[in-house]
Amino acid sequence: MEKDDIDQLFGHLEGGFDTETPPAGHEARFLNKLAQQKNKTTVHRTPVYKLRNVMAIAASVVLLLGLGWVLLDTPSSPGATDTETREETTYPELARTQHYFSSLIENELKKIKEEANTEDTRIIVNDAIIQLEQIESDYEKLEEELQKNGYSKQLLNAMITNFQTRITLLQHVMEQIEDTKKLKTERHEENRI
């Protein structure tokens, strides 16, 4: 019964949809534009995806290390206090993790600086460097607090979040650079037409 109602509705509306015809040569212009889009080279975004994958893996490693410290942290000798044992086991791991992330961030920052070959991209990179310096100073404050107050889960989480923030910032900067380059390329192509 519903099908009959729909058939009747469309039967009444038949011929009412096509009120205008396209201008002459419309199909040819459409096919030309379609052919041009097929011939355009696509901008490969592999650096961002590679950066995201590396950064996601690195963040996961830090998170797992942090969870391992919290879950597997036991005193090594009966006379050692909980704080002393945590400091002995945590700081070497923290130093290795910090070194790993710092070198990873430094390498990615070098890649980003190499990509910054226009005035617009240099402005983006310079702004990112200023933001990274601020985040680094926040991390140094966290380190000082760690030295002063000792190990705490909350402090470890703040340090991990600091690294993740830097990673996210670098990802965002790389995306902005690629978008800027893509826009310049598109504008240049439009100007030639």
Short description:
By secondary structure, the chain is an all-alpha fold. It has 6 helices and no strands.
Structure description:
With 193 residues, the chain is mainly α. It is 82% helix and 0% strand. It is built from six helices and no strands. It has helices at 2-13, 26-39, 46-72, 82-115, 119-149, 153-192. Helix 3 (46-72) runs antiparallel to helix 6. The longest helix has 40 residues, at 153-192. It is elongated. Mean pLDDT is 75; it is low at 74-89.
Give the proportion of residues in helices: over 70%
- What's the oligomerization state? single chain
Poorly predicted parts = 74-89
Sheet with the most strands? none
The shape is: elongated
Secondary structure category: mainly alpha
Share in β-strands: under 5%
Distance separating the two termini: 56 Å
* Average predicted confidence as pLDDT: 75
Overall number of strands: 0
Gyration radius (Cα, Å) is 29 Å
Order of helices and strands: HHHHHH
Number of helices: 6
Label this structure with key terms.
single chain; 193 residues; mainly alpha; 6 helices
Give the helix/strand layout.
Elements: H1 2-13, H2 26-39, H3 46-72, H4 82-115, H5 119-149, H6 153-192
